[in-house]
């Protein structure tokens, strides 16, 4: 594990293939997730000769809880800083869920740095929620049961194939939510003023949207994937046997998609 120093704290990240000479890939997970969800994809990309940095969000995993902002834009600035700190050029960024919006914002802000984005089940827009759903969301993250209810909800989003090490990953989520300061940071991420990305004028990065065929976050996962792809002018790939976390449920499919995008970026270099 490594740490990236930021103005108000540190971001934890793992680096795979540190000595490789290929593309730098920066992976950003979703809210209430741990960077370990990208470990299988990162290993495959490193085996293919690339460097892969997998970060924790602010207040998540082993990142600090001392930040003032926990938004998707804040995560975008961290991803940019991480890419710069690792001397990345024509970087490919991969984001899941909340992280999908973060890497899109990063690509819009730094077209000179980010050459490609892969969005896995991205939340580029906020799903409409009524009063009952809002109440349910707040009950889900209320103390003292939040570590277990959030972990159970996290598990329910894994429709399809059960990932290797799924029990250990759920244990990471529970452990992450137990300390009061970390719980507050995760809660701030969930209910923060996160930005929607409804248009992407000037986006230069090559783009791919990958959504699990069984993703329970949307009544029609393919329709959401196609909408997201229309925003970023990207291709769509539906991931079989997968829910919301294709990077851990089908790392073989996701890694292959990222490698194809890397090849496209290289062809245009």
UniProtKB/TrEMBL annotation:
Name a Pfam family for this protein.
Abhydrolase_6
Which GO molecular function entries does the Swiss-Prot or TrEMBL record give? Answer: catalytic activity
The residue range of the signal peptide is none
Domain named AB hydrolase-1: which ranges? Answer: 25-256
What start-end ranges are recorded for coiled-coil regions in this protein? none
UniProt xrefs under InterPro entries = AB_hydrolase_1, AB_hydrolase_fold, Carboxylesterase_BioH, Epox_hydrolase-like
- Designated name of the protein: Pimeloyl-ACP methyl ester carboxylesterase
Record organism: Nocardiopsis aegyptia
Taxonomy of origin reads: Bacteria, Bacillati, Actinomycetota, Actinomycetes, Streptosporangiales
